[in-house]
Write a structure and sequence with these properties.
alpha+beta, 5-stranded antiparallel beta sheet, single chain, Alpha-Beta Plaits, 273 residues, Helix Hairpins, 3-stranded antiparallel beta sheet, SH3 type barrels, 8 strands
């Protein structure tokens, strides 16, 4: 009997203390929790409104379609994290452990994705600075071809022998890029050497006729056909013409063939014959 009464007298104060502690916690921290919850939902609503505004803004600014989801996701995720931290601070919750876990996760992700992040950064810079566009002919990383796709992590180039080459953007942006199409037209040089016995005026006239007969050669800047250099084993001739970048290869082959045909028809002695 006595033991039971003692147990009851010990339990009753502990329950009373529990209620008292809960009451004091509600009085002290309850308003902070309520304010934190209200601000959390207000913040979510504001972030949704900002998301809609950013979507419209990026569309009107003609930001590349590959970058829009990234910028949107990065901004919204960052705002959500800031909102959570602010709400936890208002509620009086301890942030030390949360901060340590977030820092460790960030360092681990950075180490694991270093190469991927480099390609990502290169892709972002390419899409923002636009050293080339889809359809441009570029020379980079030992490849010469037309750009068919620009993604965040890689760029796709179709070479002239119909090979699809995928180049990581990290390497592409950090190396020299030659954009053959940027200026719209290219200068085409066709040089060859003949012996000293060749009639120089005849050879120059043959070059001019070949230029006039070759499709795709522009009239401006004016084409040039001339003796170029005198060397110990012969005379070097040159033709300088301008063509559209897209017609460079076909014009080169056409002009070279017409010069060769003209020289043979005129009986000019060619090297090796």
């Amino acid at each position: 009997m006595y033991t039971l009464l003692i147990a009851q007298t010990e339990v009753v104060p502990s329950i009373s203390d529990l209620y008292n502690n809960a009451y004091h916690w509600v009085i002290k921290s309850g308003p902070k929790v309520v304010i934190g919850i209200i601000l959390f939902f207000i913040g979510l609503w504001l972030i949704r409104q900002l998301r809609k505004w950013m979507t419209r803004r990026m569309a009107s600014k003609q930001i590349h379609s590959s970058l829009q989801p990234f910028f949107l996701s990065l901004t919204i995720t960052g705002l959500h994290m800031v909102l959570v931290v602010v709400v936890m601070e208002i509620m009086g919750l301890e942030l030390t452990i949360f901060t340590a876990i977030l820092s460790a996760a960030t360092v681990a992700a950075g180490l694991a994705l270093s190469g991927t992040l480099q390609n990502f950064a290169g892709g972002v810079m390419i899409l923002l600075l636009k050293p080339f566009d889809i359809g441009d002919n570029i020379i980079a990383q030992g490849q010469n071809g037309k750009v068919t796709s620009i993604q965040v992590f890689y760029t796709v180039v179709l070479t002239f022998d119909n090979k699809t080459v995928i180049i990581p953007n990290g390497k592409l942006f950090n190396e020299v890029i030659t954009n053959v199409s940027r200026e719209g037209k290219r200068r085409l040089d066709v040089d060859f050497k003949l012996g000293f016995v060749a009639d120089h005026d005849l050879v120059v006239n043959i070059i001019k006729q070949a230029i006039a007969q070759t499709p795709g050669i522009l009239s401006e800047p004016a084409p040039l056909a001339s003796v170029w250099q005198i060397e110990f084993d012969g005379v070097k001739y040159t033709s300088r013409v301008w063509v559209q970048a897209s017609e460079y290869t076909s014009a080169q082959m056409g002009l070279t063939k017409r010069i060769m045909d003209g020289l043979k028809s005129a009986g000019v002695k060619l090297p090796g014959t």
